[in-house]
Amino acid sequence: MAKTKVQYEFPMHCQSEILYEYMASAEGLSEWFADDVIEKGDDFFFSWNGGPGEKATLIRYKPESFVRYRWEEDEGSKNYFEMTIVIDDITDDLALIVTDFCEPGDEVENQLYWENLIENLRLKLGAT
After folding, report:
1. Number of domains forming the structure of the chain
2. Taking Cα atoms as reference points, which of 5, 30, 14 lies closest to residue 85?
3. CA 78 – CA 81 distance, rounded (Å)
4. Mind listing the pLDDT tens digit for each residue in 52-66?
5. Does 79 have pLDDT greater than 90?
6. Which pairs count as long-range contacts for 79-84, CB under 8 Å and 24+ apart, including other chains?
7. Where do the START-like domain residues begin and end (predicted)?
8. What is the domain-level CATH number for residue 68?
9. Helix, strand or coil for residue 33?
10. What pTM did the predictor assign?
11. Res. 127: pLDDT tops 80
């Protein structure tokens, strides 16, 4: 069954350059997304609680703008997860837009998962 595309917007109170480093580098991602992240070229290996980990490939990016990853299990599909920095032209407010794919019926659980992750990110950035 095809996964459902979901999108969330999170207001962030930080500089875009710093936020991008937390989205696009192994060091930054290991601060809030996973317990440990190892980067080998375009491949990122995420592990939690000392487990074996999961591989995601960086498939698109634009410095200080967005990153798009594809989990190894989603190779050959159009599924990905993307984090995009958006700055309002009028107010200069910064938001992080997360695009993800989840199993149908898991939308609420997926949203809670991302809300928890982004709260961890805000704490690390001091952007609460």
Report:
1. 1
2. 14
3. 10
4. 889 999 999 999 999
5. yes
6. 79/3, 81/56, 83/23
7. 3-127
8. 3.30.530.20
9. coil
10. 0.92
11. no
Number of residues that this document lists for the chain = 128
Query: C-alpha distances in angstroms, 90 versus 19, 86, 94?
Result: 20, 12, 11
- Tell me the average pLDDT across 43-58: 92
Q: Are 12 and 125 in contact (CB under 8 A)?
A: yes
**Of 45, 56, 87, 83, which is closest to residue 67 (Cα–Cα)?**
83
Asked if 33 and 117 count as a contact pair (C-beta separation under 8 A), the reply is: yes
Mean pLDDT of the chain: 94
CB 59 within 8 A of CB 68: yes
Q: Name residue, tokens 């995420």.
A: 46
Range of the domain at 18: 4-25+62-125
Q: Which two tokens mark 30? A: 């290991």
- Cα gap 96→93, rounded to integer Å: 10
